[in-house]
Amino acid sequence: MTDAAKILLNLLDLERLDRNLYRGIGSGGETPTRIYGGQVIAQALAAAYASVPDRLCHSLHAYFIRAGDPSLPVIYEVDPSRDGGSFTTRRVVAMQNGKQILNLAASFHISESGWQHQHSIPNVPGPEQLVSRAEQHSQHAHRITASQRTEFTRERPFEIREVDPRDPLNPVETSDINHMWIRMEAAKGANPQLQHILMAYASDFGLLGSALRPHGLTWYRPEAMTASLDHTMWFHAPVHFENWHLYSMDSPFAGGGRGFNRGSIYTQDGQLVASVAQEGLMRPLRS
């Protein structure tokens, strides 16, 4: 297991403070200046799962309220809203300094049979034909300022291979359609709950970037203020995140300083395992 994977698994292992009250580590995630949104979602889902031992999450809905400070721990308060015959509902409030930074509602469902259909997986090159994001970042590292280079090239817990990668420093306007393959080999052997938590963490990767693509924007160009505003996720099938999954994303609308993004997550053999939707801030920066 890589050091990056160990750090992530430690982040997602919450400390129980009291009944329905947990503490999570703020630092060590994807960004050094504020807590990565997927980290808070994943920790909040972990807190919700702590009181739901017998059924799996089928949907979660989250609102980002304030930016998280990675130098501080995050407190998660769980409201056991309902324990029904088929569905269980939990509401989780994430707090720092006594102020809410995220609200999350999650629903859990017993296993049931029923009618089935799904959209087909997009026809894109497989991960074996693509260059890893780590290799791409290594190739661009000499163009990044020294102060950003360590963060730009550091080891990540997930392996990502983009189908249509862009130049991070000199992007061109292109389609909002955004495909990437992703896996975490350290997820092998994880229980179904942790598989969900890991996928929830990764579901924030690149999603808002779909809305940036048609406008020639990236995180490394100081032209827009960006932040996730809300995040919704539905789990459709069992997750085995040690295997390759295709994260297929698009952005059907941007306007009013916001971008709307959608994502579908497929196994390599074409099973749809999760769907995602998110709206993010895309505020033009004025000189």
UniProtKB/TrEMBL annotation:
Residues 34-109 form the Acyl-CoA thioesterase-like N-terminal HotDog domain. SUPFAM superfamilies: Thioesterase/thiol ester dehydrase-isomerase. InterPro entries: Acyl-CoA_hotdog, Acyl_CoA_thio, HotDog_dom_sf, TesB_ACOT8-like_N, TesB_C. Coiled coil: none annotated. Keywords: Hydrolase. Belongs to the C/M/P thioester hydrolase family. This is Acyl-CoA thioesterase II. It comes from Parasedimentitalea maritima.
